[in-house]
Design goal:
alpha+beta, globular
Amino acid sequence: MADFQTIAAVAFLVVLTIFVFLKRKNLDTKQIIPYFLYFSMYKTKLGLRLMDSVAGKHRKFMIYVGYVGILIGFIGMALISYGLISNLYILFTKPEASPGVGLVLPFKAKGVFFVPFFYWIISIFVIAVVHEFSHGLIARAHNLKVKSSGFAFLGLVIPIIPAAFVEPDEKELKKRPHKEQLSVFAAGPFSNVAFAFLFLAVASFVLAP
């Protein structure tokens, strides 16, 4: 008999599939493998006013944070590259070793790292909101227009993995200095790393002061 977490995961996929079907005319869909693997975006204006408000009140600080994010971003890419190469070497020399990269899903399957559904969906929601809001925030700090925000879905026949996005004006972004472009790109990953450390610090104090 399926447990509550599995039932909730299936129900979520059903609701997501119905939503995508009903809103199919309003979706911007990119077919990776036609009708099998695709990525869809549902554009809204959610959060844009808040981005404008925060960026307007703390413009200098946000710009500074964006530039720090560039440095952290390059350090992160170096560390990730080292980790991937190191893991690849281990897989070739020790085939029994576990892969360092894999899907994290609320379903038990071969090659999938299983987590309970509610952990999974809450994590995705927090990561996506912090990540995309930060992209938009730094863009607005540089007076770069953000055209839309919204929900996204990676589909494998049916929508499986939810996501989010913000849509800055790409033509305007390309005209900006490289450091401004990089700060907008780096804002999302940097904010996720910063939030993770902040959450860890708070949780550590609350759970084990």
